[in-house]
Structure formats: C-alpha cells, structure tokens
C-alpha cells in the first residue's frame, strides 16, 4: 500500500476519492484550505491511516515536508470552472498552474503524479470529428488554459500521467450544483422547468465515483500507463444539452425544458470525445448517466439551497 498526498482532497472529487483510497488500504494525507467551510472528510477521521493538514498548496513551506513522505501525489487543488477562475484570475493562475509547477520542481523522480485536468481543453471541436488525446488543445477560458499548462508541466517529468475528465456528475459530500448534469437535475427536481442556451453544444460526461475508480486504476496500472494523457468519459454520453434534458425527462416526466438565446458557455465546450485509450488499459466505467440521474434525484431530497456551487 502507498503513501498518497492529495491536495484539495476535501473538494468535490477529493471527498469521494479520499475515502475510496483509504478503503483500499492506502495511507492518505490531505492538504486543503477548506475554503468552502466543508466538513466532507469528517467520516475519514476514523481511519488511522488518514492525515489532514489545513493549508495552502501554493505555500512551499507547507507542501515540501508533506511531499517528502509521499509515494504518490494527486494534485486536485484548483479553482474549478470558468466562472470562479474569471472572478479570481490571479488565484486561478497561481493555484491551477504555478502550484503544480512548484510541485513538479520539488517532487523526486521516483514519486508518481496523477493529475486530473478538463477535456474542455479541446474547446470547439471540428464537425464530424472525434477528439482523441492526439487532438490539438485549444482552451478558450482561463480555467482551460491553466489546466492545460498544468498537464504539460506534469507530463514533461518522469513518472506522471493525466486524466482529461469529462464533465463530472453525481453526489459528493462536498456537493457542487454548478456542474451541468447536477444543475439540470436539480432544476428538474425543484423547478420542474429549465431554459437552455446553446442547446446543440455537445460534451461528454463521467460519474464522480468512476473518477475515483480511474485514479485507483491508474495507481494499479501505473507502469504501463505513465507518460500519457487519458480521456475519461462515458462512450454513450456524448450528448448535447437538449439530449441530456431529454434523458432527465425520462426520469421526471413533469420536467419541461425549452431553448432560448439567453446565455453563452465561457468554455465554448462543443465536441465529441473518444475514450478508447483508457478503455484499452482495461478501465470500464461502472456508472451510467441514468444511474447517476437516479442517484441525484434521491440526493436532492436532502439539498434545498444553492450553497453547494463553486460560484
């Protein structure tokens, strides 16, 4: 079993990944600034192999001694999403990229790094073209730009790999309602109505528990996977916003939606993604879009406000 450092381990993904790693028997240290005042790791405190540090991933004096004890580093700490990055441009640059560059400088060659980035780096895809890991990265938002730069500096070192995550959905102890599937289902449950902009824009989706599973998969098959980027999404969920709404309506028949020119996607995400490379390593997602929607509907019986978003 490995000693794993997870920065941002109390965030949306980290709050699912951290207990998953602990259940696998790993020793996990989380570094997080708890900026959302979350208590999402409370249940992890029962584990003897769990350690938590309140601090900033950009602070070398905090990071360096934690790195010295780690076999594996999973840098989740980031300002996630175009809106929060646009509101905090300096923090986005220093957290999403500069902290990763520092981490790579401080880490030894023997230490393994598995980093998530966003497949929004593909920007606007070409018509009738599927985005693979060899497709050019053309991020439009500051968020996309910082994550693409972070991936580059990580993959330039030895012993690293990256996961280009599709839009994540599903319940987490540190919930986010501003992710597309989570948002649409929340509105369907609570408002029973939704106005959609840029309804033809397509993107890919992946459940948060499959994100946790892909990190486990990457750790277990690291030697054959290292040095590359991997798209991680559902092959049967390259859907437009209107197609996604139609899937949700199957679960909530009273849900009404329509399209109107009322907004604009800051990431300009419109692409179809191939997940063939990760599939060839033996990884297979366990959570379908329908299963995740059913989970969210149950989850939203307990959540009745919008404090669970990043902006």
Automatic annotation (TrEMBL):
Q: Pfam families annotated for this entry?
A: Epimerase
Where does the NAD-dependent epimerase/dehydratase domain start and stop, copy by copy?
A: 4-233
Q: Which InterPro entries match?
A: Epimerase_deHydtase, Lipid_A_modif_metabolic_enz, NAD(P)-bd_dom_sf
Where is coiled-coil annotated?
A: none
Q: Which SUPFAM superfamilies match?
A: NAD(P)-binding Rossmann-fold domains (SSF51735)
In Swiss-Prot or TrEMBL terms, this protein is called NAD-dependent epimerase/dehydratase domain-containing protein
Q: Which organism is it from?
A: Candidatus Taylorbacteria bacterium RIFCSPHIGHO2_02_FULL_45_35
């Amino acid at each position: 079993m490995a000693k794993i450092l997870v920065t941002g381990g109390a965030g949306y993904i980290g709050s699912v990944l951290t207990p998953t790693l602990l259940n696998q028997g790993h020793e996990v240290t989380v570094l997080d600034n708890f900026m959302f005042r979350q208590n999402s790791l409370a249940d992890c405190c029962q584990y003897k192999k769990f350690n938590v540090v309140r601090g900033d991933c950009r602070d070398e004096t905090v990071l360096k001694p934690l790195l010295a004890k780690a076999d594996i580093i999973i840098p989740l700490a980031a300002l996630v999403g175009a809106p929060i990055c646009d509101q905090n441009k300096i923090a986005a640059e220093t957290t999403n990229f500069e902290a990763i560059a520092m981490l790579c400088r401080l880490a030894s060659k023997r230490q393994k790094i598995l980093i998530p980035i966003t497949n929004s780096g593909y920007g606007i895809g070409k018509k009738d073209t599927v985005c693979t890991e060899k497709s050019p990265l053309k991020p439009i938002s500051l968020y996309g730009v910082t994550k693409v730069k972070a991936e580059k500096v990580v993959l330039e070192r030895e012993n690293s790999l990256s996961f280009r995550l599709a839009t994540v959905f599903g319940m987490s102890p540190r919930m986010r309602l501003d992710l597309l599937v989570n948002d649409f289902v929340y509105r369907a449950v609570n408002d029973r109505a939704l106005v959609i902009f840029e309804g033809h824009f397509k993107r890919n989706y992946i459940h948060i528990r499959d994100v946790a599973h892909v990190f486990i998969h990457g750790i277990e098959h690291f030697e054959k996977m290292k040095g590359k980027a991997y798209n991680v999404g559902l092959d049967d969920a390259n859907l437009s916003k209107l197609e996604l709404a139609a899937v949700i309506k199957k679960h909530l028949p009273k849900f009404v939606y329509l399209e109107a020119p009322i907004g604009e996607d800051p990431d300009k995400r419109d692409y179809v993604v191939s997940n063939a490379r990760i599939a060839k390593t033996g990884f297979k997602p366990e959570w379908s879009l329908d299963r995740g929607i059913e989970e969210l509907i149950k989850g939203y019986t307990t959540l009745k406000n919008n404090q669970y978003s990043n902006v």
